[in-house]
Amino acid sequence: MVVSKGNQSATTRQLLLETAERLFALHGIAAVSNRQISRAAGQGNNYAVGHHFGDKVGLIRAILESHNSRIDEIRARVLAEIGYIAGVREWIDCLIRPEIEHLAALDGPSYYARFCAHLAADPEIGYLLYDSVAVSQSLTEVLTGFYRVLPAMPKPVMDTRLTMSQHMVIHAMADVERTMDGPGAAQSVAAHSWSQHCDMIVDATVGLWLAPNTSRDVR
Amino acid sequence: MVVSKGNQSATTRQLLLETAERLFALHGIAAVSNRQISRAAGQGNNYAVGHHFGDKVGLIRAILESHNSRIDEIRARVLAEIGYIAGVREWIDCLIRPEIEHLAALDGPSYYARFCAHLAADPEIGYLLYDSVAVSQSLTEVLTGFYRVLPAMPKPVMDTRLTMSQHMVIHAMADVERTMDGPGAAQSVAAHSWSQHCDMIVDATVGLWLAPNTSRDVR
Questions:
Q1: DSSP-based helix, strand, coil % in chain A, nearest 5
Q2: In this model, does residue B217 exceed pLDDT 80?
Q3: For a Cys staple, B153 with which of A58, B31, B125, B157, CB 3.0–4.6 Å?
Q4: pLDDT confidence of B107, banded at 50, 70, 90?
C-alpha cells in the first residue's frame, strides 16, 4: 500500500495528539515535555510536536478541538430533544450529558476527562479549556436556558456556585474515567456505567444550584 | 545579636517551607523543582531542600503539617461548640470552616488553599493530602457525626458525592484565595470576606448532599 506524504503526516499528527492526551492525563500537563510526547509516539524526531503544533498551547488547543466538534454534535441533539418546559434539572443534564456520552462512546479507555481536569487546574493555561468552548453555539443556547430558569440569587452566590460546579463536574468525570481505566478506586463506582454516573453527577449538581442561600449579607 | 546554628537552621527550614508553598501554589507542584525552591529562598546551596526535607514528598508533608496542627485546634473548638442536635448543615460547616478560618487568620496573602488544590489534583502524590489528616481525632469525630445525620443513599451515590464535594470545596477555597491575592477574578467575589465565602461554600455543599437521588438503578 502506498501511503501518501499527506496521509502519513495526518497519521503522525493524530498519533501525537492521542499520545499527548494520554501522557497529560496520566502525569499532569506541566510534568510532560514535548520531547517526551514525540518519543512516546515513536517519532525519531524529538521536535515532532513543534513541527505539527508549534508549541504546547497549540498542541492543547488541537486536543480540545479533536473532541469538541463531536461533543457539540451531541449537545445540539440533546438540546433539540429538550422539552418546552425544561427546568433546572433538564438544563443541567444538557450541560453535563454531552461530554459524558462522548467519553462513553470512545474506543478503549478514555483520557480526555483527566486531561481536562489537569488543564482546568493549570494556573497558566487553564483558560484554554474555557476558550475552546466559548464559540459553541449550542453551549451558549444551553447556558441561556439554564440561567433563565435558575432561582434568583445574589451575584456572588451565583459566581461561586458556577465555579464550584465547574470544578466539581470536571473532577467527577476525571474520577470516573480513572476508575474505569484501572484498579485503586471504589468498586462501587467502577461497577456502574457512564450513564449512571451521569445521573449521579447531575443529581448532585442540581442540589448545589437549588440550595437555599443562607448568607443574608452577601449581595 | 548572636544567632545559634540551631536557630539559623530552623529559620532556613521555615523560609524554605514558605517559599515552596508559594511557588507550588502559583505554578503547580510538578512545575517547580527543589533547586528552584532553594534558589528562590536565597539559599546559595542548591540542595537546601534535600538537606532539610529529604525529597519533595518530605517537603510536602512538612508544608501540610505546618498548617494542620492549627486547623486541628480550630476544628476542636468548632466541634466543642456544635449543638447536640446538629444536622447536616452544622456538620458540613464543621468540616469546612476550620480551614477557612485558618486561611483568614494568616498574615498577608495565603497560598495554602492553592497549594492544596494542586496537590489534590496530582496523580502521583495527591494521596499525601488525605494522609496528612487521617490521624486527626477531631476530623474523625466530625466525619462520624456527619455520616450519622446524612439521609440514606446508595453507596455509589455517597462515594460520588464525597469526592465531588472534596474537589468542589478544595477548588472553591483556592479560587477565593487567588481572587484575594490579585486582580483578574470576579469583583463580586473579591469584595466579600473569607467568612462570607465560607457561608456560600457551605450552602452549596449542603445542597449537594441533600439533593434527591433520582438514579433508581444505582445500588
A1: 70, 0, 30
A2: no
A3: B157
A4: confident
CA–chain centroid gap for B2, Å, is 37
Q: In CATH, what class is A1-54?
A: mainly alpha
Q: How far is CA A35 from the centre of its chain?
A: 25
Phi, psi of A98 (to 5 degrees): -55, -45
Say yes or no: do domains A1-54 and A55-210 share a fold: no
**Using CA of residue A212, residue B170, residue A60, residue A107, what is the dihedral sign?**
negative
* pLDDT-derived band at B185, boundaries 50, 70, 90: low
Domain regions of chain A by residue span: 1-54, 55-210
Judge: A167–B171 Cβ closer than 8 Å, yes or no: yes
The CATH number corresponding to A55-210 among 2.30.29.170, 3.30.750.24, 1.10.357.10, 1.20.120.610 equals: 1.10.357.10
Beta carbons of A188 and B159 less than 8 Å apart: yes
**Where is average pLDDT lowest: A100-104, A105-109, B33-37, B198-202?**
A105-109
Q: Taking a contact as any Cβ pair under 8 Å apart, which residues of chain B between 182 and 201 contact chain A?
A: 186, 188-189, 191-192, 196-197, 199-201
